[in-house]
Design brief:
It is built from 14 helices and 17 strands. The chain is of the alpha+beta class and 497 residues long. The relative contact order is 0.15.
């Protein structure tokens, strides 16, 4: 990395994504695909120029991420995404890995359908520089630049917005101390499942959520859907479950920027007898959380080990604008396109548009079989139908039965097994000194847990960076998930030697 390269600190959300990638096994879990099918005479050269113009306008699409002096920073990449031909296999194009250290974090692929006047543009970006609203921005700019292929738009860059300040972090810590919910396991048809450490292949089901009765209750469509998911979990025997929700962190002026402007926060539900009260209670909770939405939960509460998902069940919902217009062609956009991976046990993905919903349920295919997935989807549809017919229906009557089953033991794929080794006292003292310095404490026991000491993703990068610089050994990030203690790190260094 050149010394004069302009560097911007990664945001808290970006550091979390970067750390999960470093832990390994993320696959395509952070790949955000978007496809547009064109029916009509596509001007490929004009589309290529439009792609170049979009990349020029949005620096986030030509960014790379590196570790520098114990911190994760973003800087311009020498590589830029350009329009290239698809491999012919869109699933393979989606799954193709990104090199975050070299860039670029996005790609454009064009698939021409032989024997027809149709083609498909596939855009894939890494979540570290892209979010749901970025899809609207991308397509609007592509459409504009396609019509005026020689136009150059003003640069829009809000990807380097600083993380939350100390005052907001303290407010978040106070709030989360009273609003914690169960985050580590969930009971569903087929058993009780622990939150996996790594993403897994997804079993996806399309569904059509009926949310039009939200206005009658006095809440938004998103809040109705969140209430239905909570009712589902309550019916399956999860009285204290929190659902991880993607909440936008965009500030005024960010509406035209491509970037990672979202944070995942857990939303618990207060006890309520009626569905209406459940939805209204969640509305109040979300408004209480909104001022601290930029603070990662792990940073606010501490003691949370790195994992691919915050909670076993998650929801992403957003309202989108109209479909883009490309002159002379009919366009069909797949707004909720799957990346074939899921980070937790179950994820609901809903895009609410002027012409209807693009919605699907993704299940962890390693844990939820086809019959259980279909049962869960049917129960969710039934809850929404009953609540629409009677918003004052008792929550306990909305689900036909409760799930049961033994706790699912952690599989071999979720554990990092490693032989122990004898650690020499000099190395132990050196690692211990690094921990004390980074964590700013005077005494640490060799078996103290990093997260119990207040450690988080930034702490890990700082400790690993110091060890690399002072000892000359790269400690795998898996160590900080499996055995986040001084002795665990010392043993890892011994194995590496």
């Amino acid at each position: 990395m050149p010394d004069d390269s302009p560097m911007t600190p990664a945001t808290d959300a970006q550091r979390g994504i970067w750390l999960t990638e470093r832990l390994g096994g993320a696959g395509s879990a952070f790949h955000l695909p978007l496809s547009v099918r064109f029916d009509g005479p596509l001007d490929v050269d004009a589309l290529a120029r439009a792609c170049d113009a979009v990349v020029e306008r949005h620096p986030a699409l030509r960014t790379c991420f590196v570790e520098h002096e114990g911190a994760v920073v973003q800087l311009p990449s020498t590589r830029r995404p350009t329009l290239t031909a698809s491999s012919g296999d869109l699933a393979a194009d989606i799954a193709e890995p990104f090199d975050l250290e070299q860039g670029p974090p996005a790609r454009f692929r064009l698939l021409t359908h032989l024997g027809s006047d149709s083609s498909t543009l596939l855009f894939v970006a890494h979540h570290v520089v892209f979010d749901g609203m970025s899809k609207d921005v991308l397509l609007a700019d592509l459409s504009s630049f396609y019509r005026s292929a020689n136009a150059v738009g003003a640069v829009v860059d809000a990807n380097g917005r600083p993380s939350a300040d100390v005052t907001v972090e303290r407010a978040a810590a106070r709030l989360w101390s009273t609003r914690r919910g169960a985050l580590d396991e969930v009971a569903l048809p087929g058993g009780s499942f622990a939150l996996p450490l790594r993403p897994a292949p997804a079993r996806s089901l399309a569904f059509a959520p009926y949310l039009a009765f939200a206005d009658a209750i006095g809440v938004s469509r998103f809040e109705v859907l969140l209430a239905a998911l909570h009712a589902l979990l309550l019916g399956y025997g999860n009285p204290d479950a929190a659902i991880a929700v993607d909440m936008s962190t965009r500030a005024p002026g960010d509406d035209q920027a491509i970037g990672c402007h979202v944070n995942e926060i857990p939303v618990p539900a207060d006890r309520a007898e009626r569905f209406r009260d459940l939805a209204l209670g969640l509305r109040a909770t979300l408004r209480e959380l909104r001022p601290v939405r930029s603070v990662p939960y792990a940073r606010a509460v501490g003691g949370l080990r790195p994992r691919a998902a915050l909670a076993p069940v998650s929801l992403s919902y957003r309202r989108r604008g109209p479909n883009p217009v490309f002159e002379g062609m009919r366009c069909e956009v797949e707004w909720a396109m799957s990346n074939a991976m899921v980070r937790g046990i179950m994820h609901a993905h809903v895009v609410d548009g002027p012409d209807g919903f693009d919605a699907r349920l993704d299940f962890n295919a390693h844990l939820i079989d086809e019959a259980a997935a279909a049962e869960i989807a049917a129960d969710l549809a039934e809850i929404l139908a009953k609540a629409a017919a009677d918003p004052d229906a008792p929550v306990r009557e909305l689900v036909r039965h409760a799930g049961s089953g033994p706790y699912a033991a952690e599989s071999a794929d979720d554990a990092f097994g490693a032989p122990s080794c004898e650690a020499d006292s000099g190395l132990t003292a050196q690692v211990l000194a690094i921990w004390c310095d980074v964590l700013r404490v005077e005494e640490i026991a060799l078996d103290d847990d990093l997260y119990d000491l207040g450690g988080h993703s930034l702490t890990i990068t700082q400790i690993a960076g110091r060890i690399r610089k002072e000892i000359g050994i790269e400690v795998p990030f898996e160590v900080f998930a499996d055995d986040p203690t001084v002795i665990g790190v010392v043993e890892a260094i011994g194995r590496a030697r």
